[in-house]
Amino acid sequence: MIGFIGLGLMGLPMAVNLAKAGPLVVWNRTRERCAPVEAVGAQVAASAAEVFARADVVVLMLADEPAVDAVLARGTEEFARRVRGRTVVQMGTMPAAYSVGLERDITAAGGVYVEAPVSGSRGPAEAGTLIAMVSGGDVERVGPVLAPMCAEIVECGPVPGALMMKFAVNLFLITMATGLSEAYVFAEAQGIDLGTFTRVLEAGPMASAVSRAKGVKLRDGDYAPQAAALDVLRNNRLIAEAARAAGVASPLLDVCHALFGEAVTLGHAGADMAAVAHAIRARS
Q: Do residues 60 and 82 touch, judged by C-beta distance below 8 A?
C-alpha cells in the first residue's frame, strides 16, 4: 500500500494520478481536499498516523518543514514508530540542510528516505508529466511509485542532490517567467496588441512550454494559480540561500526575489507566478 499526505495545489492532482494507478491511502489536514482522490478509489485515513500504519511507502507533498515534522511526529517517540521499516518519499521543496537532517533521522530510526522534488506546475501535475529528481536510498523501489505522476525520473546522487538540481532548474524558471512578465508589461505600455505579441513569441526561438502557458495568462490577465506567487517567493529564498552558502552570485534571482515579494505585498500571494507583472506595473 502507498500512502500520500498533502493535497495542496500540486499534491491533489498528483495523488489523483497515483490513486488511478493502484491502492492508495491519503490524509490531509483539511478533510474536504480528500474528496477528488476518494472519488477515483483512494482510501481516506483518519490521521497521518494511520497512513504510516497502513502504508509501506509514504509520499509527502507538504508546504514546509513544520508541516513535514508534524506528520512525521519528529522529535517525539512516535517518530520512530512511524518511519521504521518504511520508505518516506519527500517531494516538497525544502532547504537542503533540512533534507540532510531528515535523511539522517529517518535512517537512524530504521526507515529509508528518498528526496524527490519535481519540476512542473499544476498543469503537468494534472497530466502526470512532472519531472522527478531523486536522491537518497531505495531510489529504484520508488520508481514505480513516481511513474504515475511523472514523465521522467532522474537520479541525482546523494541527498541533497535532487534539491540542488531543483534549485538550479527553478532559478532558470523564475528569471525566465519574470522576464516574460516584464516583456508583456512593456508591450502593453507601448500599445502593442497582446494577442499578436503572443503569436510572435510562440512562433519564435524563445518559445517553450512555460512561455506558452504564462504568455496566455499574461495576454488574458488570467492569474488563476498553476504555481502560486507565494510559493515562488519561498522557492526564490531557498535558492538564494543555497547560492549564498556556495559563494555564488545570483543577481537576476535577487531582482526576482524583490519583485515577487512586492507582488505578494500587493495582495497576489495566491495568484499565479505571472502575477509578478503587477509588481512591475506598480514600479512603473
A: no
Do 268 and 229 touch, CB atoms closer than 8 A?
yes
Cis upstream peptide for 158 (omega within 30°): no
The label of the residue with cell 512511524 reads 82
Q: Answer whether 119's CB lies under 8 Å from 164's CB.
A: no
With cut-offs at 50, 70 and 90, classify the pLDDT of residue 12. very high
CA distance 86 to 181: 44
8 vs 278: CA distance, rounded Å:
25
Looking at residue 232, its amino acid is V
Summarize pLDDT for 206-218 with one digit per residue, the tens: 999 999 999 999 9
Q: How many Å apart are CA 101 and CA 211, to the nearest integer?
A: 36
CA distances from 172 to 73, 169, 175, 176, 239 (A): 35, 5, 5, 6, 11
pLDDT in tens, 157-208: 999 999 999 999 999 999 999 999 999 999 999 999 999 999 999 999 999 9
> 261-282 as b/e, with b when 16 or more CB fall inside 10 Å?
bbbbeeebbebbbbbbbbbbee
Beta strand segments in the chain, E: 2-5, 24-27, 43-44, 57-60, 87-90, 112-115, 118-119, 130-136, 150-155
